[in-house]
Amino acid sequence: QNLLNLKSLKYDLENGGEVVGHLKIFYNNDKIIASIAKLKEKDLSDFNTQAKTISQKVNDLLFEQILFFSISGLLIAVVIAMLLITFVNTPLKKLQTGLDSFFLFLQGKQDHTKKIELNSSDEFGQMANSLNENIAVSARLHEELNSLYADLEKKVELRTKELAEINQEMQDSIEYASTIQRSFVKDPAVIKKSFDDSFVIWQPRDKVGGDLYIYEECEKGVLFGVVDCTGHSVPGGFMTMLAGSIIKKLSTEYFSNPAKILSELNIAIKYQLNQDKDNALSDDGLDIGLCFISGDKVRFAGAKLDLVYFKDGELNIVKSNKQSIGYKRSKEDYEYTNHELHLESDQSFYLYSDGITDQTGGDKNFPLGNKKFKKLLADIQDKNMDEQRELILDNLINYQAQNDRRDDITVVGFKIKKG
Fold first, then answer.
1. Least crowded by CB within 10 Å, which of 228, 252, 296, 367?
2. What is the DSSP letter of 110?
C-alpha cells in the first residue's frame, strides 16, 4: 500500500542480450525535491558569503592602491614645488627685486640701483646678467639726463627771468604808451563845457587802442569826431598817434572844413606810411567822422563813418563817403564831402566806431549790429547825456555777457539847443 504512493522506475535486467529479470525502484519525489532545494539554499548561502569575502578583499586592495597613488602624487607635488622654489621662484624674486630697485631709482625714490645677485649659468642667470648690463647703462643715461635736466632747468629759470624782465619792460612801455594816448585825448569834462550836454565812451580793447576821439576848439567853433584806425593794441595805438597828430596840424589851417581835413589826411597817411608806392610794406588806414560845430550850425564830413542824429525824436543819418583814409586802394585825389545841418530845434548827435556794433553776444551770439544800436539810441532820447552813456554801457555789458571784447569801442554824443 505504501509503495502505491511512491513513484517508480523500471529497468530490464539482461544477460547476453537476453532479459533475465526486472528491477523496479520506488522513490519519494517530494522528499527528493525538498532535499535538492535544501542543497541549493546551502550552496547559494555559501556563494554569497564567498562573494562578500572576495568583494571586501578587492575593496581593501583598491583602497591600498588609491592610498599609495595619493601619497605618491603628494610626494611628487612636494618635490616639484621644492624644485620650483629652488630653481624658478627664487631667481624670479631676485630678478623682481633688482627691477624694483631700478624703477625706484628712475622715479627718484632712491639714489642707487641694486645689482641682481644670481650666479647661475642657466636661463635665469643669463637673464640676470643681461638685465644688470642694461640697468647699468640705463642708470648712467639717467644720471646724465638728470644732469642735463638740471642744467636745462637753470637755463630755463634764467631765461624765464630774462623774459619776465623783458615782459615787464614791454608792459611798462605799453602802460606808458597808454598814458601818452590818454593824454592825447581831451578830458570829457572839458568837452562838456562846449555843448549843452555831451558824453564820451572811449574803451580800448587793450591798454592801448586803435580808436580815438578828436576834440579841438578855437574862436571859430569846435571840431569833434571819432577815428577808427586799422587794428588795435600797440599797432592801432601807433596809428592813432599818427592820425591824431596830422589832424591837429591840419586843423590849424582847415579848422572849419572837415572835408578838406579828411582829403589832406588821406594824402598825408599814404605818404607817411609809404603807401603811395606799389612796393609799400603796409596797408593801414582809418575811418573817420568829423564835425565842425559853430553856433546852431553843424558841418559834417566822414570816411565810412556816418553821423546819426535825432530831431524831435526822429532818427536821421548823414551818410559818409565810402572811401577810407590812407589805404593803398584809397585814391590820393579823392575829395570828401561836407554836409551842412542848420538846427531848427533841440537835436542830439552821435558818432561811433564799429567796435560797438560788431560786438558779439545775445542769445544767438550774433553782432549787436547798427539796427539794434540805433534803436537803443532812439529809446533813450528822453534821457540826458550822462544817463544815455550809462544805459549804453549797461546794454553793452548785458549783451556781451561772457564773450570777449572784440574791438576798441568809441561812442560820442552831444546835444545842441536851438537859439
1. 252
2. S
Spatial separation of the C-alpha atoms in residues 330 and 341, rounded to whole Å: 27
Q: Look-up: residue for cell 550836454?
A: 197
Residue 138, φ and ψ in degrees, nearest 5: -65, -40
The rounded distance, in Å, linking the Cα atoms of 339 and 309 is: 13
Rg (C-alpha) for the chain, rounded Å, is 59
Pair 116, 98: CB distance under 8 Å = yes
Spatial distance between the Cα atoms of 145 and 138, rounded to a whole number of angstroms = 10
Q: Residue 177: its pLDDT value, please?
A: 82
Report CA-CA distances (Å) from 193 to 186, 198, 251, 276, 327.
Answer: 12, 9, 20, 40, 36
Mean pLDDT (10-residue bins), the chain, 419 residues: 66 76 73 73 69 71 71 67 59 66 64 65 65 69 77 88 87 85 91 93 94 96 96 89 96 97 97 90 95 94 98 94 96 97 88 97 95 97 97 97 95 84
Residue corresponding to grid cell 569834462: 189
Check residue 357 and give its pLDDT. 97
Q: Which amino acid is at 136?
A: A
Q: What is the DSSP letter of 49?
A: H
Between helix 233-254 and helix 258-272 the angle, nearest 10°, is 130
Amino acid at 84: L
What is the value of pTM for the model shown?
Answer: 0.66
Quote the longest CA-to-CA distance of the chain: 195
DSSP run (H or E) holding 249 = helix 233-254
